[in-house]
Amino acid sequence: MRRAFAAVLAVALLASGCTETLKTDATGGGPAVRVALLLPERKASRYEAGDQPYFAQKLSELCPGCTVDYRNAEQNAATQLQQAKDALDQGAKVLVLTPVDSVAAGEIVTEASNRGVPVISYDRLVLKTAVDYYISFDNAKVGALQAQALLTALGPKASQGEILWINGSPTDNNATLFKQGAHAGLDGKVKVAAESDTAEWNPDNARAWTAGILPTLRGRTIVGVYAANDGTAGAAIAAMKAAGMPAVPVTGQDAETAALQRILVGEQYMTVYKAIRAEAEAAAALADDLVRGRRPPGTSTVDNGAGQVPSILLDPVAVTKETIAGTVIKDGFVTPGALCAGQYADACRAAGIG
Questions:
Q1: Can you say whether residue 29 is alpha, beta or left, with left for phi > 0 and alpha for psi between -120 and 50 degrees?
Q2: Of 1, 112, 242, 307, whose CB count within 10 A is highest?
Q3: What is the strand order of the sheet 191-196 is part of?
Q4: Dihedral class, residue 116 (left if φ above 0, else alpha if ψ from -120 to 50, else beta)
Q5: pLDDT at residue 31, as a whole number
Q6: pLDDT tens string 252-265
Q7: Hey, CA dihedral for 8, 92, 39, 122, is it positive or negative?
Q8: Which is higher by pLDDT, 64 or 15?
């Protein structure tokens, strides 16, 4: 696990709120080399707080003559396509793309390929179109970690009731992999009362589904919740609280500060920590290679339906109350000051977090 650093790169928001240009300290007097960073949404805090500044900071170190052209699609695939075309029109030499829609994003890759511009499929895999590189985590393992943690939390209760199952967006290939990994670990070991995908990863959609399904399950014992990420976990917890239900073990992912605080006070059982800084810095290093005309091999390959994609896959880590101090705190992903503010101070002390 790589130790994270506290520095965060400041960004300048344009009036649209969707496009930011972050220029490094270019040297030599020539025009900057543009690298486009195309991220999918803002609902998950990681993209704005982690991926974008970490990527920009690392590329600035490696390539002082590069400009990061950052754009956020706000969960709209058509917007992302237009943003990619705009970035290419403005001279982007590399696209680093986290697709809103893993299949529809093939049009972005094709457009870039026609202009001789390589594409790094970042965090989420573009499907059914040949892409140059893929950098992410072992996403089936994320689901497996969630499944194992939920079984551990349930213990004998796994056979004494049912669980709610909340997946991520059906247009995100990662969500498919999380689901596959979780089903492989939980099928035959728990009974599922109801299962749903969450359009656009939107917590509001997850909360509405949970609130709507609970009245249909009266008289049945809900002993846990499989939630694919921290946003859907928080939504399920809120809906169950509103319905007057007792707390049950709930999974999550992304190690968001709010989720870690819920874990500290017993509202959520676990999350999955993905070292976003390491992922973003690996993408920046690869983008620098591509700008300089180098084509390094991946450490593995992944089949995206159009062939084997050179890939770099990082390891995710399960986090529970007992391991917060030794994982996300130790790695600098979240600070004790942010985690332990206000009402969470006592819970932090009890968990050994100073």
A1: left
A2: 112
A3: 191-196, 162-166, 222-227
A4: left
A5: 73
A6: 999 999 999 999 99
A7: negative
A8: 64
Domains of the chain: 19-137+276-315 (3.40.50.2300), 139-274+318-350 (3.40.50.2300)
Give pTM, 2 decimals. Answer: 0.86
- Asked if the model's pLDDT at residue 172 lies above 60, the reply is yes
H/E element, 114: helix 106-114
- The pair of structure tokens assigned to 152 is 């551990």
Give the span between the Cα atoms of 69 and 349, in whole angstroms. Answer: 42
DSSP state letters, 226-243? EESSHHHHHHHHHHHHHT
What's the Cα-to-Cα distance from 342 to each of 261, 271, 323, 336, 337, rounded to whole Å? Answer: 11, 22, 21, 12, 10
- Based on the number of CB atoms within 10 Å of its own CB, is 203 exposed (0-12), middle (13-18) or buried (19 or more)? buried
Range 211-218, long-range pairs (CB < 8 A, 24+ positions):
211/239, 211/242, 211/243, 213/164, 214/239, 214/240, 214/243, 214/245, 215/243, 217/162, 217/193
Side chain identity, residue 234: G
